[in-house]
Amino acid sequence: MIAFILRIIVNALGLAAAAWIVPGIKVTPAPVDNPDLGLVLSYLTVGLIFGLVNALVRPIIKILALPITCLTLGLFAIVINAAMLMLTSWITDHLSYGLHVDSFFWDAILASLIISLVSAVIGFFTPSRR
Q1: Domain boundaries in the chain?
Q2: What does pTM read for this prediction?
Q3: Distance of alpha carbon 35 from alpha carbon 114, whole angstroms
Q4: With 80 as the cut, is the pLDDT of residue 129 above it?
Q5: Which tens digit of pLDDT belongs to each residue from 18-62?
Q6: Which of 16, 19, 39, 126 has the fewest CB atoms within 10 Å, counting from its CB?
Q7: Could you tell me if 43 and 12 are in contact, meaning their C-beta atoms sit under 8 angstroms apart?
Q8: What H or E segment, with its residue span, contains residue 18?
Q9: Cβ burial 83-105 (10 Å sphere, 16+ → b, else e)
Q10: How far is residue 1's CA from residue 77's CA, in Å, rounded to a whole number?
Q11: What is the spatial distance between Cα 56 and Cα 39, in angstroms, rounded to a whole number?
């Protein structure tokens, strides 16, 4: 359970870094009395949805895209990550708060690179299960 919560926090931090750097990524705060609490709640909710999308949809897409991923020497994985970010944006469009990605090509791809980098750096410093 602790690893699951830590994964949500890491996703939220990666999304926060991407929203801070990429101008086409916006996170709408949750409608609560305190705007800072609403923004934190929104990042945690989007981090949860992004983690669920990566856990449920991404393995199927990776298997289906295996030939093109091999052809591009793994670079197509960046496009898959960006597609998962766009899917998360589409899912959170149905909430009153959440993630909005302006365009797929530059915004989603750059944001997926930033999220992967932040996740790798934070994952390096967190203790492993072994």
Answers
A1: 2-125
A2: 0.88
A3: 25
A4: no
A5: 999 999 999 999 888 888 898 999 999 999 999 999 999 999 999
A6: 126
A7: yes
A8: helix 2-21
A9: bbbbbbbebbeeeebbbebeeee
A10: 28
A11: 26
